[in-house]
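Is this the right way to post structure tokens for a design question? Let me know if I should format differently. Anyway, here goes:
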């Protein structure tokens, strides 16, 4: 579905409109571009990884114009785009698309701070939806797993009290678990949430999902008996367990995960043993 851009939710700005000279859009030679050390950061370890990633996967559709400003000597100072320009150079490209703005050093520094500081944070679920649309194999597999378990990866963060049954933002966790444990196990793991206790709205959280997956991975016979597993999980209360952990002040997500795995593992072992004993008596 395509939607038109809209300003309906935004009031008229109160500040005067002084945008400065209109920029030019030009292709510039990379040897004409320089970096002003007065405000620009050097390419560190993390930046180097970014450059390598861009160069390995170079695609003009992912290359935003580099923002530059004219400086002395016929050169242009890079205000934004040092990493992607360097990646283009690694690929042997001689020119890159640039947006040329008229700005002195102080204004360049202010522009650098604005461009890098006022970025709308992209949450993992938004990245997932973009990858799914692009045909990423893992995103497609995760989509199939979620569809089979009545899980919906929502596009915006919400408090657990506003979540509906099956709604989650824990897409990175689900992706990681699908890769580690396989789609069949993860369908059952997610159904342990969506098919029990009225869907456990608000509790499709990363640590809970991963705890279920870990326990089922350790005990393949549990998820092989899905019907029995779901019947047993009807008596398990995620709100109670989560509340107990919160009351105990378990702040570390690793501690929470370990505690969840330990409690769930013991509970399922006890319940499956009871079921086995009952079957033996009947036999």
């Amino acid at each position: 579905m395509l939607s038109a851009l809209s300003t309906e939710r935004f009031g008229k700005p109160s500040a005067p409109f002084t945008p400065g000279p209109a920029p030019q859009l030009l292709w510039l030679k990379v040897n004409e571009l320089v970096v002003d050390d007065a405000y620009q950061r050097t390419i560190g370890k993390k930046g180097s990884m970014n450059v390598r990633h861009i160069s390995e996967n170079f695609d003009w559709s992912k290359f935003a114009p580099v923002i530059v400003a004219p400086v002395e000597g016929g050169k242009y100072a890079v205000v934004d785009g040092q990493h992607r320009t360097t990646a283009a150079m690694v690929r042997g490209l001689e020119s890159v698309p640039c947006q040329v703005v008229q700005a002195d050093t102080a204004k360049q520094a202010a522009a650098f701070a604005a461009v890098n500081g006022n970025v709308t944070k992209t949450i993992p679920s938004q990245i997932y939806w973009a990858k799914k649309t692009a045909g990423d194999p893992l995103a497609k597999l995760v989509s199939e797993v979620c569809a089979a378990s009545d899980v919906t990866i929502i596009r915006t963060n919400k408090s657990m009290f506003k979540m509906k049954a099956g709604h989650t933002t824990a897409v990175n966790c689900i992706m990681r678990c699908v890769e580690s444990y396989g789609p069949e196990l993860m369908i059952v793991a997610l159904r342990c949430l969506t098919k029990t206790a009225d869907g456990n709205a608000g509790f499709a959280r990363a640590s809970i999902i991963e705890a279920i997956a870990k326990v089922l991975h350790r005990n393949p016979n549990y998820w092989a008996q899905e019907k029995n597993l779901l019947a047993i999980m009807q008596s398990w209360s995620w709100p109670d367990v989560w509340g107990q952990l919160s009351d105990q002040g378990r702040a570390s997500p690793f501690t929470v995960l370990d505690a969840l795995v330990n409690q769930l593992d013991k509970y399922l072992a006890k319940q499956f043993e009871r079921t086995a004993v009952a079957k033996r008596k009947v036999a």
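Format looks fine. Someone answered above. Worth noting: The mean pLDDT is 89. The first strand starts at residue 24 and ends at 29.
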